[in-house]
Give the backbone structure.
Amino acid sequence: MFAVEVRDHIMIAHSLKGEVFGPAQAMHGATFVVDVTFFRETLSADNIVVDMGRAHDVLKRVLGPINYANLDEVFPGEVTTTEYLCRHIHTEIAKAAREGGLGPGSDGLSALRVTLNESHVAKAWYEAAI
Amino acid sequence: MFAVEVRDHIMIAHSLKGEVFGPAQAMHGATFVVDVTFFRETLSADNIVVDMGRAHDVLKRVLGPINYANLDEVFPGEVTTTEYLCRHIHTEIAKAAREGGLGPGSDGLSALRVTLNESHVAKAWYEAAI
Amino acid sequence: MFAVEVRDHIMIAHSLKGEVFGPAQAMHGATFVVDVTFFRETLSADNIVVDMGRAHDVLKRVLGPINYANLDEVFPGEVTTTEYLCRHIHTEIAKAAREGGLGPGSDGLSALRVTLNESHVAKAWYEAAI
Amino acid sequence: MFAVEVRDHIMIAHSLKGEVFGPAQAMHGATFVVDVTFFRETLSADNIVVDMGRAHDVLKRVLGPINYANLDEVFPGEVTTTEYLCRHIHTEIAKAAREGGLGPGSDGLSALRVTLNESHVAKAWYEAAI
Amino acid sequence: MFAVEVRDHIMIAHSLKGEVFGPAQAMHGATFVVDVTFFRETLSADNIVVDMGRAHDVLKRVLGPINYANLDEVFPGEVTTTEYLCRHIHTEIAKAAREGGLGPGSDGLSALRVTLNESHVAKAWYEAAI
Amino acid sequence: MFAVEVRDHIMIAHSLKGEVFGPAQAMHGATFVVDVTFFRETLSADNIVVDMGRAHDVLKRVLGPINYANLDEVFPGEVTTTEYLCRHIHTEIAKAAREGGLGPGSDGLSALRVTLNESHVAKAWYEAAI
C-alpha cells in the first residue's frame, strides 16, 4: 500500500455541549494542524499516489469555510469534537476526489485518513474508504 | 475507523541482558515519550472515541509505578526492551479500560496502540485488540 | 548563560479588532503551546537554573484563568494577539518568581522568555529581565 | 502487532518528467528524512522486533548509493518521485533482511514500511510484506 | 524584546565546490524548511510585531526565484552553503521590509533572523539588524 | 551572527542527590537529544561556520564516554542535572575546537551553545564564549 500525506491548519472557536467535556463546555478554541493521507494500492503512470500540489489545494479549499470561524455557528446543534471534524473533512475531501478535483489518476485512490493534531499531547483521526 | 491519541512520558533506568544489546547491556536509561492510541469503529453519543481527559489520567496512573524507576528492580529477571514496555503499558491500559476507568463509553473501544518514542531516531509500538 | 525551558498549552477563543487582522477579526481560536524559558548566569547550589517541577506547576497555575476561555471576556477591550499573550504570561510568571513561587534559588534568575507556538508555521515570543 | 522504527536521511537532486509535476520538472532537490518500520507479530527471544543497531546500519548502507546523488543519473529514465523512492528503499531493505543482514531473528519479520518525509507539510510511504 | 516567526520551505539542487564538502561536492539537493524571525523592541498600535499574513507572503515571494531551482545556475560561481542562503534570504527580506512590503508598522523592526533547517539533525541561521 | 547546529543523542542513568529533585532522587534515566550550536561573526572562505561533518564527528566523540552509562559512576559525587551536563559537553567541545578538531577555520568561532532536550516538555542549555 502506498500513501501520501499533506498538511495545513485551521484556527477555530467552539463550545462543546455535554458534561463529559468539563471546562471545554465553555467557549474556547483550537489550532488544528490537519494531515490528510491518501492511500492507493498501486502507483499511477506518473509514479504517484496523488498530485501533491492538487492535494494541498483541495485541502485548503475544504478548510476554507471552517477556518477563522466559530463552529457553533457553522454547525448549529452539533457537538464539534476533534473526531467529528476529522469525519467532516474526510467527507468533503472524498467528495472532491470523486468529483475529479484531485486530477485524472484520483479514481485509483482506495482510502483516506484525516488527522487533526490539537496540541503537542493530543490528536485524533478518521480513516475510511474513499 | 476513529482514533484518539494522548501523550505523556517517563524517565527510567535499566540494563538489557543479551549480547544483541551491545553497549545497552550496561546500566543506562531513557526518556520514553509515550503515545496511547484508542481505536473505535463508531463515535459515542458525545461524538468522541474516548474522554481525552480521562485518557490522560489513566495513562499517568499506569505510568506512575515505572516513572523515575530502575526497571531492573521493577521487573526483576525481565529484558525490559522498548517493545516489552509497549506491551506492558498496553496490558495495563486495556485492563483499566475494561474496569471502566475510561468512563461509560469505553466499552465501545476496539483496539489500543502504545508507542514509545525513545529518541529522535528510534521508536517502537504494540497494537492489539482491547 | 544557562537556560531551562518547560512546556504546557492552552486552548482559547478570541476575535482581533483591527483591519490588519483580516479574517482573524471574526471569532476564532487557537491552541497555544507555551514554552517558558528561565535564564540564569550561574547554577544554584543544586546545579540547576530552576526547579523544573515547580516551573511546570507555576506555568500551569498562570495559564489556568486563560485556558478554555474566551479572551474577549477575560481581557475586555484588549487586542489579544499572540504577542500580547506572551507578555501577559511573562508578567505573571515574573511576579510568581519574585514572590518565591519558584522556590529558594529563584532570586538568581536574570530573565524570562515566553514563546507561544500557534501552528506548525507561526509562533511569537517575548523576552525581558525578570 | 509489534513495530520498531528507525530514522536516517538523504540529500538528493532530481528532475521529474511529466506535466503533473509543474515546477518540479526542473532540476531541484530534497532532503528525505527516512523512517523504516519493521513489523513482527511476536517478539524474539530477546524481547525485540529487530536489532535496532543493525537496523540503523542496514538503512545507512541502503541509503549510501542514493545519498548526495543526482537521481537522474542513478535511475536513468525513471520518474523518481517520493513514492518511487519509498518502494526502492523497501525493496533493498527487504532484500537485506532476507539475506540475514538484520541478524538471526529477522526471519520473523512480517512487513516493512518506508516513509520519506520531504518537508514539514508533505510525506509519502510504502508498506508491504517483507 | 518581542519576536514573531513564520515558516515556509524550498526544494533545491546544488553542488558545493571545495574539499571541505566531501560527498556534497557532487550534484545533490535539499529541502530547506525556512523560519524567518522578526524582532521588535515594542509592539505596534495593533499589539503586533509584524502582520503575520504579510510576513508569510513576503517570505513566499522571496523564496520564489530559488524554489525548485538548481542553485548552481541561480548563483553562478558561488558556494551556496546553508549559511550563504540564510544571508541571501535575510538580505531580500530586509530589503522588502525597508521598501514597506511588510506594512505600515514594519519601520519599527529592529532585527531579522533566517533559519534553514536542512534535516532532522542539522540547521543554520543568520541574524542581523534589519 | 551566523550559527550552525548539529544533533545527536545519549541514553544515560543517574540519580540526583538533593531534596529539590523529589522522585528524581531515585535511580532513573533519560534520553538527551543533544544540539550543539556553533556561532561565528563572519563566514569562512568556504562560506561556512564550521564543517558540519566534523561537527557531527566531534559531538559523537565527546558523547562517547557518557553514552549508555550510569553517570553516578562517571561523575562520582556530582549532581548530574541536565544543566550540569550541558556545561560538561560545552567544555569538551570547546576544548576540541581549540585543539583543531573542528578543522582549519574553527579558530573563527566565537561561542558555543549546548542544548539537552530531555522530553517533549523540558530542555536546558548552556551558552558561552568558546
Q: What stands out?
A: The mean pLDDT of chain C is 97. Chain C touches chain E through 22 residues (CB under 8 Å). The two ends of chain C are 15 Å apart (CA to CA). The domain at 2-25+32-129 of chain C is CATH 3.30.479.10 (Tetrahydropterin Synthase; Chain A).
